[in-house]
Amino acid sequence: MKELVEVIVKELVEDKESVEIEETRNDGEVNIIIHVAEADKGRVIGVRGNIINSIRSIARAAAIKEDCKVNIKI
């Protein structure tokens, strides 16, 4: 799950070196925290949150295979 989100986020930002993804798993729940440079936060969030919501939708679709729930925060 972490790798999928990392690939998507790295394609969106200018400072690819500053991208860090934290993943924790608890009882069928996956929590992912995205860390990017301050200047790139707008690129990841998008207008009215459209991009981050799309990333969340993709991650949730992938989570169905693993039978778990995904939460993503920036």
TrEMBL record:
<dbReference type="InterPro" id="IPR020627">
    <property type="entry name" value="KhpA"/>
</dbReference>
<protein>
    <submittedName>
        <fullName>KH domain-containing protein</fullName>
    </submittedName>
</protein>
<dbReference type="InterPro" id="IPR015946">
    <property type="entry name" value="KH_dom-like_a/b"/>
</dbReference>
<keyword id="KW-0694">RNA-binding</keyword>
<dbReference type="GO" id="GO:0003723">
    <property type="term" value="F:RNA binding"/>
</dbReference>
<dbReference type="Pfam" id="PF13083">
    <property type="entry name" value="KH_KhpA-B"/>
</dbReference>
<keyword id="KW-0963">Cytoplasm</keyword>
